[in-house]
Amino acid sequence: MKKIILTGDRPTGQLHIGHFCGALKNRALLQDVYQTYIMIADVQALTDNFNNPQKVRKNVFEVAMDNLAIGIDPNKSTIFIQSLIPEIAELTIFFSNLVTIDRLKRNPTVKEEILQKKELFKDDVTFGFLGYPVSQAADILVFQADLVPVGEDQLPMIEQTREIARKFNKIYGQTFKLPEAKVGDFPRVLGMDGRKMGKSLNNSITFTDSPKIIREKIKGALTGKIGGKNLLSLFKQFSDDKKLLEKFKKQYNDNTIKYSEFKPILAESIIEKLEPIREKRKQYENNPKIVEKILFDGVKKARIAAQETMKKIKEKMFLNYFRE
Ligand code: TRP
């Protein structure tokens, strides 16, 4: 039996090279070794986009195409839509008894996000948003995942998932294994403006950006101590020329780096690596029916797995009232 991976993305915008370095590259490699489930977390996306459902709907397909473009193979991996697996919502309710409000308020990622979303949440926060780590635990545990490849900001979610699994096992009897997180080798990519690269911050490079746009974005990217270092990290990720990397690194360190020379070279390395991804994505963009079918089949497969786990869970919780 292959070990299981569950991972996912909130469909709030296109994925970008930050995701690529931090998580997506890993994801494509691991699908050969693990039984992989990739969830498009539309329900989670609604926790901070409940007032913009069209945006979430549109980006479900964008994120699906991004995953396919970076090499997720629907014959190896199962891509599916969270809201079509009602067992996740059901399990979220059961898990909500195992988590206190204080514990949720201490989750550092949620804490930071609430601050960022002041406009949406004003001085309070919704039940749904504060509780999304519980729903994320249900995402992971209903598929009995062994490994959860994620960006660094997601580590607190996996920690909470393990706590919930432990508590469930203790109260209702051994049911869940404790999943491990796996962070990519280059988790902290900054945007072109020096802030964290974000789907909605307009500072990222996406898989649909043309060479011209990539050149412009790199040209306009922040330099200096922080920006320059970030650009060097990107060069390390996207270029195979170690000698050139060392040269620019040295120049950066002794402050002689000429960005007018370095930036165009960096831009070309990114363009070259993203070209096959952009091409592959275009094929899916031109054939939306194929993407729909992949998602449809993925939901079917994922649902069967979730239902199997749910049956075991209900037995443990004395909720198995009638024989089938
Ligand atoms: N919270 C993740 C993010 O914002 C998305 C996500 C939802 C996820 N459910 C998951 C990631 C389960 C890993 C496992 O990127």
Overview of the molecule:
Belongs to the class-I aminoacyl-tRNA synthetase family. Keywords: Aminoacyl-tRNA synthetase, ATP-binding, Ligase, Nucleotide-binding, Protein biosynthesis. It is an enzyme of class 6 (ligase). By secondary structure, the chain is mainly alpha-helical. The chain has two domains: 4-186 and 287-316, 3-Layer(aba) Sandwich (Rossmann fold); 211-283, no CATH class. Helix content is 59%, strand content 8%. The chain contains 15 helices and five strands. The chain has helices spanning 17-30, 42-47, 53-69, 86-96, 101-106, 108-116, 118-121, 127-130, 132-142, 155-172, 211-219, 224-238, 242-253, 259-285, 288-316; strands spanning 4-9, 35-40, 77-81, 147-150, 180-183. Strands 1-2-3 form a three-stranded parallel β-sheet. Strands 4-5 form a two-stranded parallel ribbon. The longest helix has 29 residues, at 288-316. The mean pLDDT is 95. The structure holds tryptophan. Tryptophan binds next to strand 1, helix 9 and strand 4.
Poorly predicted runs of 5 or more residues: none
N-to-C terminal Cα separation, in Å? 27 Å
Number of helices: 15
Adjacency order of strands in the biggest sheet? 1-2-3
* CATH class category name of the largest domain: Alpha Beta
Strand content: 5-15%
Count up the domains.
2
Q: Rg, please? A: 21 Å
Output the CATH homologous superfamily of the largest domain. Answer: HUPs
